[in-house]
Amino acid sequence: MEKAYWDQAHSGPLILSHQNILVTPINSLSLSLSLSLSLKTFLRTSVCSYLSIYLSIYLSIYLSTFVISYLSIYVYIYLNLFIYIYLKLFLSLYSIYLYISICLYLPIYLFQTVDNYLFITVDIYLFQTADIYLSIYLSIYLNLFLYFKDVININPLILLSSSSSSLWHVP
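Given the sequence above, the corresponding structure tokens read:
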């Protein structure tokens, strides 16, 4: 019996599967936390993705095995991707809605110059990127720039830097 225990203890993978330090809950938690933090630097995160960290910690503490911590990492990745895709889709739809609502209030002849075709191309390119906030700001700024350049011939930098609200009224 001692020889069988000695052979089993020195056989390599068996001792790793039964007596490895990674099976303990603390090291399983630290591993899942380190992988979660490294994944958070790789993925674009939102405020809601902290919920997936808490879920990963809860699964690691509650189940406290190395195999199940892989499951918590998969749950974390799934939640991050789901929240990121949903948030990106929502923001892109909102930015397109904002773009259309701004363009509807501008004159129709705004789209008849070469600058506007270039602007529409740049705007469509920005909508396809992940920086939705930047596309919203640039869309508003380019709309205002083209509007004030063509209609009342005023530099929009003066309007953006000025604190007076009377300049925003179109005569």
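The radius of gyration is 28 Å. Try to locate this feature in the token string yourself.
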